[in-house]
Backbone:
């Protein structure tokens, strides 16, 4: 059995500690906002926060997430999260939307560590998140917009 | 490309549409759900049930029942805009749900009889219908209010969801029960464009909030009680079949419940996705490859070239291309090659099925509901109407979810059948399955020979294309393929807007077990590159400005000319200088009824191409949602760039060499150029927008690279191997 702390709640899972966190969240905990895209940490669709930092849940075994605070798109909160989600909505960033949970989780980490990211900072911070619909221009603008809103 | 003009709804169609409007609020409150009844076979006589496009409930929400599926193209927002415009609803009260499968009610008026989203037809086909629905509903609310207040209907106003007369005010929600009693208007008058207050403005997307909070439910998020997740081991080479398999080790994996052979592979059933994937790794399968495609990419292209000496199928012939070329002062000869391409939507293919005594129910990002119903019914021995489809949000498609042979829902059906429906089955393709799974944009070869007169005008154009037909072997073949010629193989060449007098276009079909499929913009995904590269090359050879050269060939079409001129203006084509290693290129293409011109600015450093800026101009008819149009152009550029610069599916001895986002890597943030979109404020019928932004990207970039380096690249990906960061 593996015990995880997900969105502030302790959950006990009858699984192998080798199961990727992504599948534990989606198939066992029932949190489907975190998406499967590649299974190899290439696309960032599965991004969650582990102890407040963006991490690719498809490539972290649940055994390695024990004792850490896991936060998913469904529960991420606070001024930065609110500013990011508002900016995404204001600029109508989404198209299919499938990658956007991961984009938003990465953007929150970026803005949490850098209140005024440059375009180059955004390129670097968002490098691991693929959007097949090509919404990058709006993601960039939304990150700047969120930074402005946060002052 | 003028098919949109053909849609002129019959009176009968209108009455049906109007009835659709009334039926929705017949329900008044949110109890019985319209779509569920539609699923069971449509309206019952004497009731107001038929209407299935709109539901207005006591909570004052106005819900579009969307006949089209949403893959990110913004169509739910678009259709809701049309309804809300004529209904005079407030945008904040608009919602959407997806319609059930019912081709009679949700027919695509340009494609049908068929419930289908594709070919960039949605806004065009529903432009009048959805406004009629809104107008009919509005008239009934007005009639209900007039009766309540004992005033003439002509004096009742509706604005932003409030019905009023003097000091009387009522919401749609409060009037819904009364409105449902009103007669269906026999006729409605639609607003004049000058009176539009939503069409042509920026309304927030209806799916933005749900997609930024984790609340949006995609097909892959569907969970049914006791559901088993299935992954399938498919052959490494196309056309192979299972010879034998050993599931002993697979069944030892914790969570694996069953292993069953399917017609195309071996299915592993498990209680969660990871167990299914691990179980599949432990499977041992041997394959019969006697009928398989076992060639490599270079061998396939060589086989293509051997066909060029044959006559082929005549797609179009004007004048005397051979004679004109014989008299030409200068000739350009070029071979263009295009690889197989995977669609690679972010959400890999997946779908879920439950069987019952009554039939089958599926949950899927279903793009061609009518086709999917037929495919599932055939596998399971049901009638199509016994297949209930729950359409969910799709995490992209780019054509992959709209397969006329329904490979994925067929596979799901076989997987359910193999366990006799004992549990709901959730079929999931991994990313590797997606990249290696076929149904690619075809590999294509073009051979083009074009001449110039001494004074720099085109003198003869011979064009041969080699590819596998997309439509052959599908239910669309009989309607679309004539004498072996598949129009989707040559579209963008045979119907070019350029006035080429002596023109000869021929198509050669090839056969291979490797399955192919339309891929965003279909034939235009390669033909625009060949055409626009040739035109550019000819312009330079003629010593003419590439924009002016094109304008002369498009002079007969004022909308073409306007789009290209505006692109030249906005890019300061005549002024902007290019420095060392920098270049600009222009391209124009007309597809899906929509005209798009692009000017790309690139910087080339060694083998690295950096696309810095793309200025785009689009004329898609009435711009119903300008911000969605801009988003589709921006997205088309992001989507296209990966294939312009990098992506290709290649075969070695029949085995696909790519597998995931490392060796089939989409465009990333740092590679996204600055995109400007300028929209022509047209009053013509709306045309497509999901696809027409793609075709001009590759040639605009290629022509810019040629301007920067003097090097003409005749293949995609362009072949300067990497993208600069």
Residues:
């Amino acid at each position: 059995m593996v015990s995880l702390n997900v969105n502030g709640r302790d959950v006990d899972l009858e699984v192998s500690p080798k199961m990727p966190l992504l599948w534990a969240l989606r198939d066992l905990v029932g949190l489907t906002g975190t998406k499967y895209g590649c299974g190899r940490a290439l696309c960032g669709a599965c991004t969650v926060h582990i102890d407040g930092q963006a991490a690719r849940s498809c490539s972290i075994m649940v055994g390695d997430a024990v004792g850490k605070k896991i936060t998913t798109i469904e529960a991420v909160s606070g001024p930065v999260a609110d500013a990011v989600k508002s900016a995404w909505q204001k600029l109508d960033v989404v198209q299919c939307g499938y990658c956007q949970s991961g984009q938003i989780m990465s953007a929150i980490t970026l803005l949490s560590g850098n209140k005024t990211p440059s375009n180059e900072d955004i390129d670097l911070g968002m490098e691991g998140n693929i959007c097949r619909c090509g919404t990058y221009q709006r993601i960039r603008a939304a990150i700047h917009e969120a930074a402005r809103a946060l002052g | 490309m003028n098919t949109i003009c053909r849609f002129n709804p019959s009176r009968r169609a209108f009455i049906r549409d109007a009835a659709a409007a009334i039926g929705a609020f017949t329900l008044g409150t949110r109890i019985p759900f319209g779509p569920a009844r539609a699923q069971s076979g449509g309206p019952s006589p004497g009731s107001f049930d038929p209407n299935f496009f709109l539901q207005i409930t006591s909570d004052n929400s106005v819900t579009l029942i969307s006949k089209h599926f949403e893959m990110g193209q913004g169509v739910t927002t678009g259709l809701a805009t049309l309804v809300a415009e004529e209904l005079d609803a407030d945008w904040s009260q608009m919602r959407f749900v997806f319609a059930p499968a019912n081709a009679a009610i949700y027919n695509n008026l340009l494609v049908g009889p068929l419930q289908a989203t594709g070919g960039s037809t949605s806004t065009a086909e529903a432009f009048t219908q959805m406004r009629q629905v809104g107008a009919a509903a509005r008239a009934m609310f007005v009639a209900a209010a007039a009766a309540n207040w004992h005033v003439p209907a002509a004096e009742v106003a509706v604005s932003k969801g409030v019905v009023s007369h003097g000091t009387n005010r009522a919401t749609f929600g409060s009037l819904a029960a009364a409105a449902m009693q009103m007669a269906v208007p026999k006729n409605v008058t639609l607003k004049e464009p000058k009176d539009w207050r939503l069409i042509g403005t920026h309304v927030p997307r209806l799916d933005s909030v749900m997609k930024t909070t984790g609340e949006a439910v995609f097909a892959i998020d569907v969970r049914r009680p006791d559901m088993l997740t299935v992954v399938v081991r498919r052959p490494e080479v196309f056309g192979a079949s299972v010879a034998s398999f050993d599931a002993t080790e697979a069944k030892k994996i914790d969570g694996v419940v069953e292993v069953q052979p399917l017609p195309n592979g071996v299915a592993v059933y498990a209680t969660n996705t990871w167990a299914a994937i691990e179980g599949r790794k432990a499977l041992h399968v041997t394959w019969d490859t006697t009928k398989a495609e076992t060639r490599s990419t270079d061998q396939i292209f060589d086989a293509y070239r051997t066909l060029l000496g044959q006559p082929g199928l005549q797609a179009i012939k004007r004048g005397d291309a051979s004679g004109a070329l014989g008299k030409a002062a200068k000739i350009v000869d070029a071979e263009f090659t295009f690889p197989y391409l995977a669609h690679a939507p972010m959400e890999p293919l997946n779908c879920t099925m439950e069987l019952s005594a009554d039939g089958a129910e599926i949950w899927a990002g279903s793009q061609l509901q009518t086709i999917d119903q037929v495919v599932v019914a055939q596998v399971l021995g049901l009638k199509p109407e016994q297949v209930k489809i729950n359409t969910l949000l799709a995490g992209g498609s780019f054509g992959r979810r709209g397969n006329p042979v329904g490979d994925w829902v067929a596979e799901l059906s076989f997987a359910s059948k193999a366990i006799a429906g004992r549990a709901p089955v959730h079929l999931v393709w991994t990313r590797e399955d997606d990249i290696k799974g076929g149904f690619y944009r075809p590999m294509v070869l073009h051979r083009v020979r074009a001449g110039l007169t001494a004074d720099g005008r085109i003198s003869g154009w011979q064009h041969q294309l080699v590819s596998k037909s997309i439509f052959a072997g599908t239910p669309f073949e009989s309607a679309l393929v004539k004498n072996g010629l598949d129009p989707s193989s040559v579209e963008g060449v045979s119907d070019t807007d350029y006035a080429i007098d002596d023109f000869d276009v021929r198509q050669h079909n090839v056969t291979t077990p490797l399955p192919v499929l339309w891929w965003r913009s279909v034939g235009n995904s390669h033909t625009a590159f060949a055409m626009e590269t040739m035109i550019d090359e000819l312009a330079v050879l003629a010593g003419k400005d590439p924009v002016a050269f094109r304008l002369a060939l498009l002079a007969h079409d004022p909308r073409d000319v306007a789009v290209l001129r505006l692109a030249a203006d906005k890019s300061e084509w005549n002024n902007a200088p290019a420095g060392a290693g920098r270049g600009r290129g222009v391209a124009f293409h007309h597809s899906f009824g929509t005209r798009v011109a692009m000017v790309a600015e690139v910087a080339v450093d060694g083998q690295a191409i950096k696309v810095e800026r793309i200025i785009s101009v689009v004329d898609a008819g009435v711009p119903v949602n300008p911000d969605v149009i801009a988003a589709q152009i921006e997205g088309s550029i992001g989507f296209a760039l990966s294939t312009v610069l990098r992506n290709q599916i290649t075969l070695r001895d029949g085995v696909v060499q790519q597998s995931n986002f490392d060796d089939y890597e989409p465009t990333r943030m740092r590679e996204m150029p600055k995109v400007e979109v300028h929209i022509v404020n047209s009053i013509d019928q709306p045309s497509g927008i999901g696809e027409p932004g793609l075709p001009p990207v590759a040639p605009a970039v290629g022509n810019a690279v040629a301007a920067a380096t003097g090097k003409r690249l005749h293949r995609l990906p362009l072949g300067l191997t990497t993208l600069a960061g």
In short: Residues 79-150 of chain A form a domain with the DNA polymerase; domain 1 fold (CATH 1.10.150.120).
